[in-house]
Amino acid sequence: MELKNLSLNAKKKRMLLLTDGNTDQASARIRAIQYIPLLEKAGFKVSYIPRVPVRPSNVLFRYSIFPVVKRFLWLKRMIAIFLGSWDIVFIQRSFIKESALRKLKNRTPVIFDFDDAIYLGEKGSSNRKKSEIMIKYADEVIISTEYLNEFCNLHNKKGYVIPSPVETERIRPGNKEQGKIPTIGWIGSSWTTDYLKVVESPLQKISKELPFNLLTIGARADFKISNINHISRPWSYEKENSDLNEMDIGIMPLPDNDFTRAKGGYKLYLYMAGGLPSVASPVGVNQSIIRNGDNGYLASTEQEWMEALKLLLSDAGLRKKLGMAGRNDAVLYYDRNVCFEKLLEKVNKLI
Questions:
Q1: What are 58-71's pLDDT values in tens digits?
Q2: Which pLDDT score is estimated for 52?
Q3: CATH number of the domain at 183-334, out of 3.40.30.10, 3.40.50.300, 3.90.1010.20, 3.40.50.2000?
Q4: What pTM did the predictor assign?
Q5: For residue range 228-286, what is the model confidence (pLDDT) as tens digits?
Q6: Which CATH topology does 13-165+335-350 take?
Q7: Three-state secondary structure along the chain?
Q8: What residue ranges do the domains of the chain occupy?
């Protein structure tokens, strides 16, 4: 889809973009950083300041250089907030001190974007209070799923839902080798690896009836399911599309709790962009993304997981049919350009 020409005027508008993570953090990369080229094309001069640098793999650098750069970024952010002149400030998932927010509020519109139930978190009441402050001072709150509006509404704000966008021009279906053993795939972060326990028993039982490989991307290095032919790889932006192309079926198992009900469907969007049929737990937004039997299957019980996966493992034609339906959905509803137009509409109304 070609991005519409939505430039505000000939003079570039100044945007301060603050993120919690860097390019190695999914939320920051997907919901903010990848918008920068589109913002610049739309007439913005973007000053981007993450909270932290990219986490180095070298242990020595991690405990020496990383803290120094992190402190420098904090100082740079404070100077930008208190002394900078901005037409709009876009804060993605990052918690900013109330004094700084008060300063911003008096001078420029503020957008706060968050995905996931960050108000729960490991720090409990502290994260909840920080989230409340961010919502209080934001002129516009953007969220990844409707479920997050329950928290926004408690604080007299209505969040605007924009899905976590997928780059459908980068993530594309690949050619499937005929007759090969099919591969069930999962892509995610190390801290969500335990969600795979939902499908551990179904996969073990299916393996006794049908041959398949399990490919996990980004899971903890020590994760494995016994008696399964399992390939594990670290996540890589450069290899993300080729890794997805090795999969024949994408899975998104989730336990059902307050945190997972608020999760976005980015994992499913990736599978769909790659032309893969998905099997997912009917938790939160998954129920609105997956149309059972059309672009994938929803499975809540062990038996349902087994039935859906066995059906797809046994029928390459069905996999292709459902995968192409998912690809169409990804392009129409979850593509980066589609989501960016929604974001830009909100930005235009504030400046």
A1: 878 777 899 999 99
A2: 96
A3: 3.40.50.2000
A4: 0.91
A5: 999 999 999 999 999 999 999 999 999 999 999 999 999 999 999 999 999 999 999 99
A6: Rossmann fold (3.40.50)
A7: CCCCCCCCCCCCEEEEEEECCCCCCHHHHHHCHHHHHHHHHCCEEEEEEECCCCCCCCHHHHHCHHHHHHHHHHHHHHHHHHHCCCCEEEEECCCCCHHHHHHHHCCCCEEEEECCCCCCCCCCHHHHHHHHHHHHHCCEEEECCHHHHHHHHHCCCCCEECCCCECCCCCCCCCCCCCCCCEEEEECCHHHHHHHHHHHHHHHHHCCCCCCEEEEECCCCCCCCCCCCEEEECCCCCCHHHHHHCCCEEEECCCCCHHHHCCCCHHHHHHHHCCCCEEECCCCCHHHHCCECCCEEECCCHHHHHHHHHHHHHCHHHHHHHHHHHHHHHHHHHEHHHHHHHHHHHHHHHC
A8: 13-165+335-350, 183-334
